[in-house]
Amino acid sequence: AVLQCLENISDLHLRLGLFSIIWLTYIKHTFEDSCRLVNKVGKLPKDHLCIQDLGFKSECLKSFLNIAKNYLDKFYSCSLKTFDQAKQEIKFEKIWDESLPSLVEVAQDTKTVNIDILNLNYQISCTIYYQCHFNLKFTKPLDSLYDIDYQYILEALAGNVVQRDISMKCSEKLLAPRMKYLTKLTRTAVETISCIDNNEESKSYNNEECLHWIENICVLAELWGVDNNYVRRQYVTGLYHMGYDELAVNILGLITEPQLLLPSVLAITIQRLKRSLENSTNQPEWIVSMPPQLYKKMQNTILDPSIPAQPSLSTTTLVLQKLVSQIAKKTMDAEAMQNIKLAELIIESCEL
Fold first, then answer.
1. Cα distance between residue 176 and residue 165, in whole Å
2. Most Cβ neighbours (<10 Å): which of 95, 175, 242, 300?
């Protein structure tokens, strides 16, 4: 309701000032305490810790962090608008000359917000909220995923510290932990998908929640300087890992570097083949007809219990064929050529 009211204020100076006042008065302190607690625990805190440090339970914490994230998103969007209109002249009777300034005056005279600091606060809100929503375990996220001390970022938005030059481009050492965090988020988002109709010929899925989260994860990746194609590759890998092959095939057309996706798809496919072979009624015949190098790879593979127990070899073939055809349109190096040959051997073996 507050955000709706703020967005309906036409005067941008007044709107931005009120965004700042409301943040500092009602949200900032609880947000800071929440960030410190989650950073210390490394996951969604249990009820007793939330009550002890914040005064409410963990479910309320998730709701609050979602509100804070949405608020900072709108706050940031407002700060990016062009302020080409003059501040509104406020007129009042002389009787009020000695009184305290009105809310409109205070809002209009609020210090200019540092856009980069506001952006970083929004990034932090996404990081902490997503971790709590999915209850991900990630040690000290605000220390390991950000170059700048998060305490400074939180205080700088209030203007309580000396402003210093900051770089929005993260150091190289942060890319690996950020990609790891994004991968965890993406794989967990895939787990929200449910199968509505398990008909072997035409499966249908409820993946609306997953698509919503993938979009959010892509926004965070972009803010972090991580290519969205990385998130898409992790998304396809997650879909394929869970056996949602039809959904994976639909996304493959969006992958700009399919050769980077092939190794993880091949690893899952080897798992599928080994499981199918173990459950097969004609094992000897299948082993004899299988290329030796492929059978050796299967023998050296330890089964992953998280991969579906009854994989569909027909949809496995569909995914591999689509991926190989995508890669064939690109310039390939020696490793990609080798992976394609293995994929083609697997396709032949699936069709036996």
1. 25
2. 242
Instruction: List 205's β-bridge partners, or say none.
Output: 195
DSSP at 93: -
Which of 114, 111, 115, 125 has its CA nearest to residue 163? 114
Our separate counts of H helices and E strands in the chain read 18, 2
Confidence of residue 109 (pLDDT cuts 50, 70, 90): low
pLDDT of residue 30: 97
173-194 pLDDT, tens digit per residue, is 999 999 999 999 999 999 999 9
Bridge partner list, 197:
204
Single-letter amino acid code for the residue at 252: L
Tens digits of per-residue pLDDT, 123-150?
A: 999 999 999 999 999 999 999 999 999 9
Which one, of 324, 269, 328, 323, lies nearest residue 294 by Cα? 269
* DSSP code of residue 98: T
Sign of the C-alpha dihedral, residues 138, 144, 149, 155? Answer: negative
Q: How many CB atoms lie within 10 A of CB 284?
A: 8
Report residue 105's pLDDT band, with 50, 70 and 90 as the boundaries: low
Instruction: Please state, in angstroms and rounded to a whole number, the distance separating the CA atoms of residues 137 and 131.
Output: 8
Residue with tokens 């036996």: 352
Rounded CA-CA distance 40/49 in Å is 11
- pTM over the 0.85 mark: yes
Instruction: Pick the closest to residue 297 from 346, 238, 241 (CA basis).
Output: 346
Cα–Cα separations (whole angstroms), residue 218 to 226, 232, 252: 9, 8, 16
Strand partners, 195: 205
CA distance 155 to 117: 9
Give Cβ neighbours of residue 242 (< 8 Å, ≥ 6 apart).
190, 191, 193, 308
SS3 label, residue 195: strand
DSSP letters, 32-53, are HHHHHHHHHHSSPPPHHHHHHH
